[in-house]
Design a protein that fits this description.
alpha+beta, 7 strands, 158 residues, globular, seven-stranded antiparallel beta sheet
Length: 158
């Protein structure tokens, strides 16, 4: 197994806590804030507009490398409305994936924090892949998301 990695990203959004929660807790909106080159498509058959709950499973297709499609299944393992939710990979490109989404009301809006713990497959090769392109791809994906969120909700004013 390759080495355990942890990354986090924080963004302030000029909306109410309820508005942020409604948007980010809906898998239907995930493709709106994911770079097009990743080919992200929700494939779940269930209604993705229903309220999120622990045990809920979502499936996707994603193309992180050269258009090669990968199936990805995540489970929502924890939910506290308007505070946080956690998704964990059950099947997909990572040896381990644990993604926390935290929301906190602040003056002028909401502070959203993503904490991602992951392990790549293939042992030392996974560690090399992380150093060469995976970490960079995460950074690019969250930078894209930052801009997309600003386009949807506006820029946060300090």
């Amino acid at each position: 197994m390759s080495k355990f990695k942890n990354i986090s990203f924080v963004q302030k959004i000029p909306v109410s806590l309820e508005t942020a929660w409604d948007f980010f807790s809906s898998p239907a909106n995930l493709s709106k804030i994911t770079p097009k080159y990743m080919g992200f498509v929700t494939t779940s058959q269930q209604l993705i507009s229903q309220k999120m709950y622990p045990g809920q499973i979502f499936t996707y297709k994603v193309s992180p490398l050269m258009g090669f499609k990968i199936d990805w299944m995540t489970e929502i393992t924890h939910v506290v409305d308007n505070q946080y939710f956690v998704d964990e990979q059950r099947f997909g490109p990572f040896a381990m994936w644990h993604h926390q989404h935290h929301f906190r009301e602040i003056k002028g809006g909401v502070e959203m924090t993503d904490i991602v713990d992951y392990v790549l497959p293939f042992g030392p090769l996974g560690s090399i892949a992380n150093a060469l392109f995976v970490k960079k791809q995460f950074d690019e994906m969250f930078q894209y998301r930052f801009i997309a969120v600003e386009q949807i909700f506006g820029k946060f004013k300090n």
